Amino acid sequence: MGTARAPMHVAIARELGIEIIDGTWAPHVSRTLDDIQTRFGVSRTVAREASRRLEAMGLVTSRRRIGLIPEPVDRWHVLDPHLIDWRLHSNQREAQLRSLTQLRMAVEPIAAEMTAVNAPLRVRGLLPPIAAELRRTGESGELHEFMKHDIEFHRQILESSGNELFAALGDLVATVLQGRTELELMPPQPKPEALDAHEAVAKAIFAGDHNAARQAMQFILDEVRSVFDKSDED
After folding, report:
1. Around Cβ 6, how many Cβ atoms within 10 Å?
2. Which pTM value belongs to this model?
């Protein structure tokens, strides 16, 4: 994630992690630290840090005298934003986007409703200007700037909902929005209906209209889901 060059052990863990996700590192195949050192030409310390990163994300388990063994998906820490980013860059990208969209559909409409109810006026007042920037950058095709404002918009709502678990999903949503842009899964210009819906969410939250806020956010996510429904029909 991002443009800065990652530390060596992070880059190695990412490459190996995507191999696990893709299935090219088979579940029954073990790899030792020596294997990692030889393959990537790195020190023992770097190989160990890469393996620890994979273990911390639940992707592998380390067995004495055997090495690293890939774990099944039900052992993965699937809400880890870095793991989400890896999955978006794997052959499981579409399935990951669908799962994330379903999670967002379960959370974000309620978060918008709660923000309209719980957030103070000064916080609710932050959203209309962000929505205006979303329209400006969206209509001009500035997708990178649009992405930054979109992340800010959705993160602000999650963090202002009054629910600490919703707030903790801010990085997750940021990762998927960034991934959609980096993977060129966004249209050249966002649909006018989507821009209208973001403005409707901001207006409803600012007015304290919780029903309208929930419905407008639901519309945004229904639009995202429709992309997958269309791909299933094709």
Report:
1. 12
2. 0.86
